[in-house]
Design goal:
Layout lengths: L2 E7 L3 H11 L7 E8 L2 E8 L2 H7 L9 E8 L14 E2 L3 E6 L5 H10 L11 H11 L4 H11 L4 E7 L6 E6 L4 E4 L4 E4 L11 E4 L4 E5 L4 E5 L2 E2 L5 E2 L4 H5 L6 H7 L1 H9 L3 E2 L2 E2 L14 E6 L1 H18 L2 E6 H4 L10 E7 L5 H12 L3 E6 L5 H5 L2 E4 L12 H19 L6 H13 L4 H11 L7 E6 L3 H16 L3 E5 L15 E6 L6 H13 L3 E6 L8 E4 L6 H22 L18
Parallel strand pairs: 18-19, 18-20, 20-21, 21-22, 23-24, 23-25, 25-26, 26-27
Antiparallel strand pairs: 1-4, 1-10, 2-3, 2-4, 5-6, 6-7, 7-8, 8-12, 9-10, 9-11, 11-15, 12-13, 13-14, 16-17
Helix pairs in contact: 3-4, 4-5, 8-13, 8-14, 9-13, 9-16, 14-18, 15-18, 16-18
The structure holds fructose -6-phosphate.
The site of fructose -6-phosphate has 15 residues, from helix 9 and helix 16.
């Protein structure tokens, strides 16, 4: 997601920060900024768009001689990608950069506003610097910093500099990475190894609930309020490896990241027993009579999955269409209907055109999108960002996961306005980040199994209900990465034709959740087994007849089963493709963003 760098030393600080940020570009960003504290003065610069824009802005600025600098690249999640919302955020005499989400920023903001403090930006980050200055009125700067950190809830890696204490950089870390590197005369900070490689050899990876400060000669780190020893470890030296956080492929990194980004989707959107979407600005969706959802590819599978939830929870009639089909069918868009488009990139030509058509026909439109300021976000009446961060792997994984969670929350949001009992749903929602953790044991098992699925005359992924679109998604992942033929099918539909293909070289991947039509799916799988298909069953319930079996955990909600199985089909596609020697991140013939018809 966002990138953080910091520097204490005598070199040209602007260049050190820009170089560091350049190394973090791969993480994606839509604005950037830096600040330099030297001789008790702070200079700062911010720019929307590429780092070149920031470099141009500070071209005439120079900062040689001992001093302190911080820099940031921002991927918008709270507030538009504007200069005001770019980091650093400023108080009267301090400034801050931050990665993560401050969950309780609204409460802190309200408290400070009551004290007459006004805010410039729409971000959660600004509360850090305002709260610091609020406390620093009456206490030492480090005490003020400690106090403010103790009040923050959520994920943060943050660096703060202040004219009140012009000899220190204050830092804090919880649930977002922050690394400190040191050589004889210099200290470096970064949110990822890549920005430090070539600058230092030894680093400290801060643990959660850490804070402290660094000055010319000191580095004090407190962990859970206890001063810890500064024990350095060797920094890896391979940048490409570092950019993938040590994973072999970006796709693999993104599969493992899903638990974190799903937490981000939830952050600030569940208040007490209610779902809140600030983005809908009090729009009352209670009166929506019909929903139309349009998307392409994986986003279309998210759309189809959500239709089951909109029907079941929101009790709203929902139709789903592939955007390229919707465009030319002169589709009917009714008054009082809500037209939802889903897109990771926000630039997919077919989806954008479908949105234009719906707008022309007078529908109220909502975009579920991962990229703020994209064409689709700019055009839709309302946009809900999916907060997945940049997705580098061409085959979509974490974007899909965040779309599904966002849509499920939207379904509950519409349902709650109708007096719906939400306890069960909210409990399950909160559990999803845990469900989406990838264990080594599971990954090893899938790696071992994958060697049996490298040939054959085709794959069928089958499931029922919401697991049918997941079957479609599993098949799409396998097709994209392995170039083997795979189809997703409703389990109950196999007997109406495709079962004719069944033999031992037809591989069936059966999604058999316990909490969603288990017995029905089981019968369908038995029909295939009777025709000698080779079947890999994925289920919490042992199934003796299957050739291969991946046991999932017992869950309390079928959507928890959905997320667990989603990870399994993603890993399976990846492992098969690695064995086949394919480029997992850049499959042949595919592009990440399809801006042509
Ligand atoms: C599959 C994949 C594509 C996209 C599709 C739509 O892994 O990534 O099928 O989902 O091209 O793209 P977006 O979501 O950007 O509109």
């Amino acid at each position: 997601m966002c990138g953080i760098v910091g520097y204490i030393g005598s070199r040209e600080k602007k260049n050190i920060i820009l170089e560091g940020l350049k190394e973090l570009e791969y993480r994606g960003y839509d604005s950037a900024g830096l600040a330099v504290l030297k001789d008790k003065e702070i200079d700062f610069f911010k720019a929307v768009g590429k780092l070149e824009n920031l470099a141009n802005k500070c071209e005439a600025f120079s900062s040689e001689g001992f001093g302190f600098a911080i820099g940031h690249t921002r991927w918008a999640t709270h507030g538009k990608p504007t200069e005001i919302n770019a980091h650093p955020h400023l108080g009267e005499y301090s400034c801050v950069i931050h990665n993560g989400i401050i969950e309780n920023y609204k409460e802190i903001k309200e408290k400070l506003e009551k004290e007459g403090i006004s805010f410039l930006s729409q971000t959660d980050t600004e509360v850090i610097v305002q709260l610091f200055e609020y406390y620093a009125k009456d206490m030492d700067a480090f005490d003020a910093f400690k106090k403010l950190v103790s009040e923050l809830k959520g994920a943060f890696a943050t660096l703060l500099i202040s004219k009140k204490e012009p000899t220190k950089v204050f830092f804090a870390k919880n649930a977002a990475p922050l690394i400190i590197g040191k050589n004889a005369d210099e200290t470096f900070f970064a949110s990822a190894d890549a920005a430090l490689i070539g600058k230092v050899n030894d680093v400290i990876y801060l643990e959660d609930v850490s804070y402290g400060y660094a000055s010319k000669n000191e580095l004090l780190i407190y962990e859970n309020d206890i001063l810890r020893a500064n024990t350095f470890v060797k920094l890896p030296s391979d940048k490409a490896y570092a950019q993938k956080d040590g994973f072999r492929f970006f796709m693999e990194k993104e599969i493992y990241e899903q638990s974190n980004v799903l937490s981000e989707v939830l952050m600030g959107r569940i208040e007490g027993e209610e779902i809140i979407f600030d983005e809908l600005k009090n729009e009352n969706l209670k009166d929506v009579e019909e929903l139309s959802i349009c998307a392409c590819g994986t986003s279309y599978h998210a759309a189809l999955s959500s239709s089951y939830l909109f029907n079941r929870l929101s009790k709203v009639k929902t139709s789903v269409e592939i955007a390229s089909e919707f465009r030319y069918k002169d589709g009917i868009v009714k008054e009082n209907s809500l037209f939802v488009v889903i897109s990771q990139s926000g630039e997919t030509a077919d989806t954008l055109e479908a949105l234009k058509i719906a707008k022309q026909k007078g529908a109220k439109t909502v975009a579920i999108c991962n990229v703020d300021n994209s064409s689709i976000v700019r055009l839709a009446d309302y946009s809900i960002l999916t907060r997945a961060g940049i997705e580098k792997g061409v085959a979509s994984t974490k974007a899909f996961a965040t779309q599904i969670l966002t849509l499920w929350m939207l379904a509950i949001f519409i349902a709650q306005k109708k007096g719906f009992d939400m306890n069960k749903e909210l409990k399950a929602l909160r559990h999803i980040p845990k469900v989406a953790l990838v264990t080594q044991k599971l990954h090893d098992k899938i790696h071992r199994l994958s060697k049996r699925y490298l040939d054959g005359h085709g794959f069928f992924f089958i499931g029922r209900d919401v697991f049918y679109p997941l079957a479609l998604e599993g098949a799409l992942k396998l097709k994209e990465l392995s170039y083997l033929h795979a189809e997703g099918y409703p389990a109950g539909e196999m007997k109406h034709g495709p079962i004719a293909l069944a033999d031992s070289k037809l591989y069936t991947i059966a999604l058999m959740p316990e909490l969603c039509l288990y017995d029905k799916t089981k019968s369908n799988v038995e029909e295939l087994i009777a025709r000698d298909s080779t079947v890999l069953c994925i289920s919490p319930n042992e199934f003796e007849l299957s050739d291969d079996f991946i046991k999932t955990n017992k869950q309390e909600h079928f959507m928890c089963e959905f997320f667990e199985m989603m990870i399994i089909v993603q890993l399976l596609a990846m492992e098969i493709s690695i064995r086949l020697g394919n480029d997992v991140d850049m499959p042949r013939n595919l592009a990440k963003s399809v801006t042509v018809e």
